[in-house]
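[Meeting: bench + compute handoff]

Bench side (C.D.) handed over the final construct sequence. Compute side (W.E.) agreed to return the predicted structure before the next meeting so the bench team could plan truncations. Sequence as handed over:
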Amino acid sequence: MKMQNLIDRLLKGQTWREWIREMVRFCVVGLASYVVDVGLFNLLAHSGLIRLPGDQSMTAKIISVAVSVIFSWFINRVWTFDAQPDNTKTTEFVQFVLVNIGGMLIALACLGFSRYVLGLRTILADNISANIVGLILGTAFRYVMYRYVVFTPRHAEQEPASVEE
């Protein structure tokens, strides 16, 4: 019975079907955001079209994440986690940005470790560390935070404050 209580809390009032739909949408938005992030990162870091201040790859990653965060918030807001009431957009956006700063720091930590600890400074190494390893770890972090902090489904607000067992 305790396992069912845990499952009910994790689903936050959703059915399995609703949760799977949400997860698929999250993955689709994540894929689109990934394309924006990786494409812009490689354009800025490795195309030679632009000279960025500081470490070219690190600065490019910060910019590419910032752009993909705005894109991702909008699409997640209107499509993935669409049960959120409209009156919390400002708070939600601030939380979304903070969560994505956390995700970016995870990707930057992976990139920094690769570049400064392992001494790997190739295009391939940058992409593996920031856009594969960092992405996987950051995505897990972001989903949990979006699901349980940023985008709280409307029907979860209608639940009673205390649940009797």
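W.E. noted at the follow-up: Residues 154-165 have pLDDT under 50 and may be disordered. C.D. will use this when planning the next construct.
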